[in-house]
Amino acid sequence: DLNACYYLCKPFQADKIKAMLDRINTDEMELVRSVKLSDGQSVILRNVIYIDCGSHSVTIHCKGGENIISRTSFTDAELVFRDHSYFYTSTKGVIVNFYEVTLQKNDLFVMSDGTRIPISRRKSKETLEAFARFRFDNLRKGGER
User: Fold this and answer.
1) Beta carbons within 8 Å of 111's beta carbon, 6+ residues apart
2) Is residue 43 domain-resident?
3) In 3D, which of 114, 3, 7, 4 has the Cα closest to residue 50?
4) Structurally, how many domains does the chain consist of?
């Protein structure tokens, strides 16, 4: 009735907690994790390629050519997405999803949909360090996800 995949009986034992955590597929959960925007729209994080702003709204460019337009400020969007380390503001008004970067050249990212996103000269060092840290952490966890 509860649709539970596992349960623990008190008192908890370390080996039982480990067995429970091993059964949880965190990678699968991460692929469907979503956030709610200030206008109430829900967005699956890993479907986002990049986000840009214009005309008092943000456009969330998603896989499959889908775009979500939200009447929210770019600052509000940054607050929602920056809690996830793979989203980064590489230049004014654009947030990239590091998972969707297919190529990084000196001054730009090429995204999975072919879009070329510039890297701000002012933030270049910081941006490239953040991207390198993301890539290193991702490789340490076992590669692309």
Assistant:
1) 49, 50, 96, 100, 101, 102, 117
2) yes
3) 114
4) 1
**Which token pair is 15?**
């080996």
Neighbours of 1 (CB within 10 A): 3
Give the span between the Cα atoms of 54 and 97, in whole angstroms: 19
For Cα atoms 33, 42, 20, give the angle at the middle one, nearest 5 degrees.
25
Task: Find the CATH number of the domain harbouring 73.
Answer: 2.40.50.1020
CA–CA separation, 81 and 95 (whole Å): 8
CA 14 to chain centre: 32
Q: Does pTM top 0.85 for this prediction?
A: no
Q: Which residues does residue 48 pair with via DSSP β-bridges, in sequence order?
A: 62
Residue 25 lies in a domain: yes
Distance (Å, rounded) from C-alpha 8 to C-alpha 53?
A: 47
Domain assignment present for 90 = yes
- Split at pLDDT 50, 70, 90, the class of 8 is confident
